[in-house]
Amino acid sequence: MGIRDSEIQRLVHYAKSLGVNVIFLRKYDKYASANWALDGTEITIYNSKNKNKTEIIMDLLHELGHSLWWIHEKNRQPDLKFEEAIYRQNLVEKDDLKNPAPKHLRKKIVNIEKAGTLWWFSICKEVDIKIPEWKVNLFMEFDIWAYEIYYETGFFPTIEKKKEKFKELRAKWKPGIGG
Prior knowledge:
Layout: H1 3-17, E1 21-25, E2 34-36, E3 42-46, H2 53-74, H3 80-95, H4 103-117, H5 120-127, H6 133-153, H7 159-173
Parallel strand pairs: 1-3
Antiparallel strand pairs: 2-3
Helix pairs in contact: 1-2, 2-4, 3-4, 4-6, 6-7
């Protein structure tokens, strides 16, 4: 078992200690690479043939960040405005509606996404994740950027724009390239 495999296992055990079940599905979801259940009980990681172990770890960090936010800041209580916002977002994505969720609901999603990222480094430290700090920062900034685009436009950036932004952020954060 390699380093990344054991890190994934530690993250899964960490999730279980929070009362969160982690499910890995071998299916592609064009709308999400992972999901966090709104009741805080489950994280689903969607695996594709192109996803590497570092990306799986980053997906777990992202979703576990939601769990810690929900536990520590919401006391495991539902946030009905967030649930409404997610419901509306899912309708747009799944039904290809041209009518995005209202901006005030999109703002709720962005704020909660940002709040979840604040927990990433704590999780890395607690679970002894060896991914370099620059890479966590890169994924964090990329994540926030995508949700800010969603807030402004009502739609997530295209795959082409995501690739372009990721390349830009890699040049910014990776030591020896720009970071």
